[in-house]
Amino acid sequence: MKSTAKKLAVCAAALCLLACGTAVSAAAASPVSGLALSGVAMPWDQDVPAESIEAGSYTANMLLGSSQQLSPVVRPRNSTDSVVFISDDTSILTVSNSGVVQAVGVGTTRITAAAGNQICAYTIVVSMDSSMIVTEMDLSLSSNTIYVGNSVSAQLQVRPTSASNYATVTLTSSNEKVATVNNFGRVTGIAPGTATITATCGSVTATTNVTVMSIPNSGTGTGTTSAGSSNSGQVVTVNPSYVVLKPGATRTLTASVKPSSASQKFTYKSANSNIATVSPSGVITAVGTGATSITVSNGTASALVTVIVNRSAASSSDNSSDSSSTEPDNDTPIEIDPVVQTIQDSEDNEIVFTQAEVPTVTGDILNALRTTGKTLCVVGDGYTMQIAGSGVKSTTSELDTMLILTESDQGIEFELDKGKALPCSVRIDLDVSTYTRLYLYNAVSNKWQYLNSYTDGIITADTAGRYLLTNQNLKFANINWTFFIAGGVVVVLIGIAYVVLKKRYWFW
Question: Distance between CA atoms of 113 and 104, rounded to whole angstroms?
Fold first, then answer.
């Protein structure tokens, strides 16, 4: 009976105190000031400062990309001081408010945990395993020969392939007065000459050469001589001195040398047989698109012939040495692109076409925009593309106007100009504006690279490639706080129940 009575007394006391707590809360919320019990202090309302804090167990060595939860031990256990975490170097380690550490860079740094006036430190080393370290690289260009003002794209392969997600690659040019390169691998010709493009990742490097050529004027002319020509007094003349061909077409060169007493036997050599080959008799065959040169030499003097191969080239090929076959027929009317005609004739500064009408912005269209200073607006499915004539830098390349907006788990993706080099900056107005971040896929590092915030549905791009619109921060993983909040609520409820059922004296 005594035991039962004691239990009933404890329960009654607990219920009474809970009722008092409810009354205090109601009184605090009541507009009647006479009911306020501000003089009553409950045990859980008192501040309990931290007397010490210890690091607890943690992993001092982390792999890049991994995470761990820090759990410092604060005494006394009922301390009301919250724990604050600070990273000395956020480029190596980041830490959330709840103590979740992310390894984002290689190196050693310290995380400090503070509770009131008490602190403790975690020294953590971040490293990579063998699958994350680049041991070899291969660097190549879509074409090793370009004209001034044109661009090509660099392609990089790393080994092992698993290291591509962790590699930090820098690209440099040996002569930026000849060619420049940006972080996305876009190589642009500045002036005639040769430059070496170098990719560096730690101690591993890879190189490739690019030759920049000046754009030749139209018409045929005399071949140039080598430096040895003036010393020997011999001058090699080649007709024509430049050739424009479609892939698969041919053109025969005719060479001669002065004085006539010099050797009239010539050798022919292509600088890039992937673009054009040349036979021992001087027949050029176009192989792939791009630009290269043919060296014509009699062993003493030499001359260069420029060869341009593109799919839209006017027919300038034949199977004989008769150069007159390449001359245009003056009686044949020249057809003008209707888009070019509209740009030239329109009195408006903005000319609007549908994407079906202008699937490709050709060099002629770009030239018309640049000379008139007008803006072309191409309306597609879910977007409008604007090309301003004032921003056109090159008229020898083309621009694909098709954008396919594809939904993914991260947001919306699309590819601009199918990864080619843009001849100008492009403004894209999208119908969707619910996203906040814009990323561009970096083919060199195989990562999404953050560009800027995305507002008003407008994108201004000067680099071709894959773009992503998203609301996610792709650099760090998002943390779900629901578990931590629910756990905290459970701990608080358990503490209250313990005090109510076990403590006999409330106000000591």
Answer: 19
Task: Tell me if the bond preceding 216 is cis, omega within 30° of 0.
Answer: no
Residue 462 vs residues 99, 103, 413, 424: alpha-carbon distances, Å: 41, 33, 17, 6
Q: Is the dihedral of CA 113, 114, 120, 123 positive or negative?
A: positive
Residue 260: Cβ within 10 Å count: 7
Amino acid in position 280? P
Tell which residue, 107, 169, 180, has the closest CA to residue 137: 169
- Along the 508 residues of the chain, how does pLDDT read in single tens digits? 445 545 545 455 555 445 444 444 444 444 433 434 444 555 555 789 999 999 999 999 999 889 999 999 999 999 999 999 999 999 899 999 999 999 988 899 999 999 999 999 999 999 988 888 889 999 988 778 888 777 788 888 888 888 877 788 899 999 998 998 987 788 888 888 999 999 999 899 999 999 888 765 433 333 333 333 334 567 888 888 777 788 888 889 988 888 888 888 899 988 888 888 999 989 999 887 767 788 888 888 888 787 777 655 544 444 433 433 334 443 444 456 788 888 888 888 888 888 888 899 988 888 888 888 899 999 888 888 999 988 887 777 788 999 998 888 888 899 998 767 788 889 998 887 788 888 888 877 778 888 876 777 788 888 888 899 888 887 644 445 555 566 677 777 777 776 666 655 444 4
Distance CA 342, CA 404 (A): 27
Residue pair 482/418 in contact (Cβ under 8 Å)? The answer is no
Q: Nearest CA to 142 among 186, 172, 183?
A: 186
Beta strands 93-95; 186-189: pairing state: unpaired
Instruction: Return d(Cα 139, Cα 21) in angstroms, integer.
Output: 73
